[in-house]
Amino acid sequence: MKSATPAHDGHIPETFLPDFCNIRTVFIIIVIAELLAFILALAPQGGTHDRWNDLGLISLFMQWIALSCAALLCALRGHLNRLGNTGAGLAGFGLILLVTGLLSEAAYLVGRHTELGYALAPDWRQEFLLRNLLISAIVGAAILRYFHVQHLTKKNSAAEAQARFQALQARIRPHFIFNSLNTIATLTRGQPRLAEELIEDLADLFRVNLSNSAALVSLEEELALGRRYLKIEQFRLGERLRVRWRLGNIPLDATLPCLLIQPLLENAVYHGIEPLVAGGEICVRGECQDGRIVIDITNPIIGEGHHGRRRSNHTALENIRERLALHFGPSGTLRTTLHDGMFKATLAFPYQRQEYENPDCR
Prior knowledge:
Layout (H helix, E strand, L loop, with lengths): L4 E2 L16 H20 L8 H25 L1 H5 L2 H29 L12 H46 L3 H17 L1 H18 L5 E4 H19 L3 E6 L8 E3 L4 H12 L6 E10 L2 E9 L14 H14 L4 E7 L2 E9 L12
Parallel strand pairs: 3-5
Antiparallel strand pairs: 1-2, 2-4, 5-6, 6-8, 7-8
């Protein structure tokens, strides 16, 4: 089995500043600017009492500043990331004030030479500039603080998921180890070559379980690991365990975090097949449509609404959901259903391949 190389998933930026080229970030900035425009329009002030006209002018000015700041921060993202968190925060704050000052001066000059001049008296220039700079300083600091807290939350979530994953790795089910070793022991004399193959498969399972959880592997490697696991279990359970693979046009060159499929297969064996006297069939079905890969793992289970004599604490399932969310965002999901004695886990994530796109996944 090929060794996986660590990769950066791209969801947590190098600094706490988000990607201002991202449409979601721009949308958040637009909404914040518009909410601030409403507050300023409703605040008591001298001059005109036409609130709707004030709202229109303030909204235009606020969005002008907000979008200009976003565009500038987007263009300078690479330079800001190299400054570190403190440097990027100070530079971003300074850019916000600089843009506010320049656009305030421009707005004042435009207002003085148009019909909007009634709102900008000649002696109001300094007050207009200082007022806008103060508002930008307060709002800019609050927004940067929000992005910083959000960044820390993501880092803490990633660290927590990493800790849970490592705990899950350290808690390899003893029954699987002992049963696998017993199966290998029974084959050492009569079928030594087969015993050697099972030892290699078991070694691959341990190597991946002890690897870096942030590593990315190909879907082909992840499925190969699942086949190795099921191969060991089939020798132990015999005819009680039957496996059917229906992978269709699924692209095997897709990348995903390691150990997403094998734990689902282990749950299917441990909670589904093993407690059943007659055993059952595990069906692994995969398809790729509209750029998304969907893998269904279905197995029979004892009892409706529970796992029979073996109740699960869902640690593995929650760990998979967290790592999917950290790497793929909301596009990576794991859903489970239980109906008519059949348990189904559905793993879905976007097809990602940097070198080229698979033509069958469209």
